[in-house]
Amino acid sequence: MQPQTVIPRFIRAAENGCERVAKFLIKKGADVNIQINSFKEPPLHYAIRKGHAQVVKVLLEGKANVNLKDRQGYTSLHIASQFGRTQIVEDLLKDKINIDVQDKYGKTPLYYAVKYEHIKIVKLLLEKGADPAYAHKPKAKKVGIAVGVITAIVTPLILAHTTVLSTLAIIGATIASALIIGSIAYGVTYMASKHALSSKLSEVNCDEVKKPLQV
User: Fold this and answer.
1) CB 3.0-4.6 Å disulfide test: which of 2, 55, 60, 193 passes with 47?
2) 150 exposed, middle or buried (CB, 10 Å; 0-12, 13-18, 19+)?
3) What percent of the chain has pLDDT over 90?
4) How far is 16 from 47, CA to CA, in rounded Å?
């Protein structure tokens, strides 16, 4: 099979959701990370943009580079976050991906997820440690994120529903300025006893929070 026939077929397979063809081309040795047009978009980007989750899985199994950038500096996670591809974001986050990677405009996947109000994706990114400082600030208030708090964190904020924190130190932060998104609460407490990050804000005992922890 000649390269000039493999390349366009691979792109078409990714764009049109042809899982079987994608598997065949990978088996025949087609370059899963080929970038052919002026935008330097690999097959993975085409599949994500069109929402072909099964083809994305095939490409990932074929060792597609999740951190590969196109001409705009977009990675697969940028595109999935822009287009609201929740399942694909979940699959990408299982790989060794740079979650705070910036495109040529200095924007991260979280920025686009917030900008386009893809709440589930915002939650996923934050849970995996995405830096809230990069969020789209005008939209951040609407989706419930207090942007800028991250710069004051001196103890890592462990973003997991079942994680137990013995100490959570945030300079000048309060419950009002904590990160709240969807059903996940990021509470602040200065108590020495164990506090779980609950999946519901209502389960956080706000009476225990007398004042921000000063360090």
Assistant:
1) 55
2) middle
3) 53
4) 8
